[in-house]
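ARCHIVE CARD
SHELF: 3
SLOT: left
DATA:
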Amino acid sequence: MNLKDVKAVPFHRKRRKRVGRGRGSGMGKTSGRGGKGATARSGNETSIQFEGGQTPLFRRLPKRGFNNPFKKRYAIVNIRDIAHFESGTTVTIDRLKDTGIIKKVLDGVKVLGDGDIKKSLTVVAHRFSKVAMEKIKAAGGEAKVIS
């Protein structure tokens, strides 16, 4: 290998835009800001929702319903989801996360009664529906409520 064989490593170099340097530069006169008005001036900071004085879209659209900021959101688990655990197992929130039945706990875990269960399991959760609690107890299991 000789010195004449060495080539410079090509890399992306973006040049700084130099505005206001004459008409021949392509960025002269108005410096790429268009014509006159507020947008041509320095310090103009109109918000993205500004529509030139027209009533903005978010104010023209009707408001619907009520969003309760104190609403509890539970991670839902059905009886059919926990039915595959072996008999005598204690089904905890950590075990539900490890098996991928739930991703996030949110404000708690609620067990609903969709599906059938034949094994006696000890299920630990924040909430239970009546049907879920009856099905767990009928199979010989136990439903423990976390406070």
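SLOT: right
DATA:
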Amino acid sequence: MILADTRSRLSANDRQLVILLLSRGSAVTRARVERQLDQEGIDALLDHPELFERLVAVRGMLLPSPALFYYVAVRHLLRGTGTDDRDLADYLAAMLLEFGRRDRAWRIDWNDDHRHQYVVDILDDLNLSSGSRRFKVMVHLGNYALWLVGVFPDYIAARRLRKGGPGIEYYELLGQRGYQMASDHELADRLGLEPVFRAAAERFTQARRALNRLSDQLLFPNCCSPDRILRELEGPA
């Protein structure tokens, strides 16, 4: 089960890299940053408005861990849409880390033998499932819809153009539905994820736009399409 736990994965090396990047070689600034860390905790440093750009610019051996990079990126880009929710950023970063591994995005869990390449397959599974598995399918519906429309928006647009496939609105509607159903399930409360799923349902469009910017700027920077131009013109939702 994916949890909102990306920040808990940050290591001492991650913290030292954040301090180094924010201090930029100044002993005076480093002392101030370390005081802020002691007084306000790591979240205050992770929210620094310049940290994301400095992490992107890092070269050489001082590379950020995937957990550090994805959390700061998602948090920064979500705030750019007007969504100031650390737990939601934590969860979405964890989802990106998990779905980026092998075929995990096509499975509701690592130990599940069913592979769902299409959202309609997840809907069929939802109708046939019960108990804790049904809850996992609900969550996966939200996660997979957001993964597709957030990270691969140009693929969605191209498939719609070539084959008449569904557009962004279709995935947003189903993704919101999945997260909303999951937030109402008793297991969400037991896992401490009810507020996260509720926020994901309510702010799905903002989350999608944040992941679009991550995809456009960093994952597929050389792709150019009319849809990308339109996305660049989108303001905060």
